[in-house]
Here is the input.
Amino acid sequence: MSKVEIWHNPRCSKSRAALALLEERGLEPKVVLYLEETPPAERIEAVLDLLGVEPRELMRKAEEPFKKLKLDDPKKSRRELIDALAAHPILIERPIVIAGRRAVVGRPPERVLEIL
Here is the structure.
């Protein structure tokens, strides 16, 4: 199996459950605490491509930056939305697990098993 990476928020029960599922299978994923070590815009864009989703689909819409920056505005470009994710990582849905050329949002956590 190729290297596994998880964009993790230890305060999130879904993220903790996804990490536990990986570890129960003997995997030692690279844990990216994305709120502290935010991936750059280019990495976010690459992961969006692996997920097969657009930036707004990965956003937590109830978070304050989403409302304040008016990220629901259809005139916002893909680049503006990706830059917003990079500048405000709280907007990134979690957890995201990346394995090779595949990625999945672990909601529910069992979804991470789909790419292993």
The chain has one domain: 4-115.
